[in-house]
Amino acid sequence: MALEPEGNKLLLQDVLARPGNETCADCGNPEPDWASLTLGVFVCQACSLLHRSIPHISRVKSVQDTWDASEVELVAAMGNSAAKAKYEQKVPAFYYRPTHTDCKLLREQWIRAKYERNEFEFIEKQEPYSAGYREGFLWKRGRDNGQFLSRKFVLSEREGALKYFNKQDARDPKAVMKIETLNATFQPAKIGNPCGLQITYLKDNSTRNIFVYHSDAKEMVDWFNAIRAARFHYLQVAFPGASDEELVPKLTRNFMKEGFMEKTGPKHTEGFKKRWFTMDDRRLMYFKDPLDAYARGEVFIGSKENSYTVLSGLPPSTQGYHWNHGITIVTPDRKFLFACETEAEQRDWIAAFQRVINRPMRPQEYAVEAHFKHKP
């Protein structure tokens, strides 16, 4: 005999309280308030919207709704832990597992890869990003005119590089990006495309940006994971004693903070100019435009043990009109003066700088600091 709705509700609360069900099955957000009846998993509201895009695979329902006994039985029979053991049984170490803070593209493709394409149950389905070689066409933003043009890209682990070619039949690549310094981060808002990816690499110890997208979301996420796979295998050779847990955080990184600030030159007498700033680990770069290929300058941010400090405000002698909320970064060489438009931005930037300054420098970072040319 079916229980009354109140009894079903209590049963559902019991199922929700089981280990594994207290976080979203797909992004790890705490206290999921939706469930997929067909898959038997509990998910957060944001992921439930993505499940709606695969209605042939997943039928979602709010845990606040009235459930009947058969529905409770469906989620009780599976649950997040059992689903993870099934749908994530062969996720490669390098594969990016998105969290609730990641862009919609990454979260949706993770959900489709698990439940629709069953990529982590059948290793052969992982070929596009785990073969060690990948080639194809991506729309790339032109450095000078800002137009996106189709360019052939080739990623080769054997050659240790990602290359792109300006002409389809070109023998020589337009650029060779070493896997050693390669990074990729999704930037849909900045690029103006839901599949927009920013690729960075070092050229003569300066950061170079490339902005690309593909109209097919799976293609773009496959490229991203292929880059991560290449970085993983490169680092395994470079650091033979390191565990997967140590290497995985080094594969790709999101920028610590980005946004507009104003800056003045080394004499502190020039006018303040508005620039787009990107904080990439210990490199603070500034650009005239967020989509510039090269930074106008880069500042190395070391640690407090090495006499780097961040201060709220500007020296009293500061000249010229500028935004009201100042920041001073003191390095062993000089002081860098910045100004933020709002107090909230100032607070966020200071927190980002402080995080880096509080972290002791690693041996290889001393080499970076030594090479660093503080550009005016």
TrEMBL record:
Keywords: Cytoplasm, GTPase activation, Metal-binding, Repeat, Zinc, Zinc-finger
UniProt subcellular location: Cytoplasm
Keyword Lipid metabolism applies: no
SMART domains on file: ArfGap, PH
Domain Arf-GAP positions: 9-128
Name this polypeptide is given: Arf-GAP with dual PH domain-containing protein 1
Main location: cytoplasm
Origin: domain of life: Eukaryota
Cellular component GO terms, alphabetical: cytoplasm; plasma membrane
Pfam families for this protein: ArfGap, PH
GO molecular function term, any single one: GTPase activator activity
Domain PH: 131-232, 254-358
